[in-house]
Fold:
Amino acid sequence: MKNIIVIDSETKLTKTDLNLLEKKIGINLPVEYKNFLILHNGGHPKKDCYPMISTVLDGADIAWFLACYEGEHENLLKEFSRFKGIIPEEFIPIARGSGGNKICLGVSGNVFGKVYFFVRNWEIDENGQPIPDEMCTIANNFTDFINSLYSIKVEGKVNEKGIFLSSKYIDKHDKYSLPFSTEAKKHGSIVTDFFSQAPIEVEDYIIERVKKANGLTLKYEVKSENKKYCRKIFKDGQIKDYQEAASTPS
Structure:
């Protein structure tokens, strides 16, 4: 599991704390998740986006990991109690997205250890019946979930109301998250082989997606060479490799 930066975490937990937590909720938690809680008891990850396995969405984000502490907000025990009977009993909420939906961890049966995105549906269908809630698979285990985390920055022109008229999505991956990315899964070696050429000093693998434009642009910067290596992937699968001056010359 890769190391991630998490800010605003609560006091670190001990193994004794985790044993008490498991007794309170009556659940044996996956080891990977317990090890994570010892390192990061709640908080916001700097790399806060992730892809999904089974959903029409490319991915979503983490606003906060839930914490085991005495406070009111993002409290793991309180959220567990609040969503009991709403979230299926095979799952426990461990984080929430910026839209309020929960990230859940499977804790029994065939879903044990897997990570899911829980969508609470409040709408009704044409027959007046509630639309079922959804569980979308994020990752097959907690380690894959953490390894898949990356960051996104959005650039572009905005109008006077601050709404983007055109936008460019800049995905910042690393060697752990790249294989999980939608682009790597779609284009395969065209993406992974390009980034495999990056020297060991390179930490950030950039994938730029321009809304309504054709293709992708892959980039990595080698500061010691004052160069940025680029690959354009066109809609028809053709590629073009080129170089740019580094944005932060050494």
Summary: The mean pLDDT is 87. The chain has two domains: 6-147, 151-245. Residues 151-245 form one domain. The chain has six helices and 15 strands.
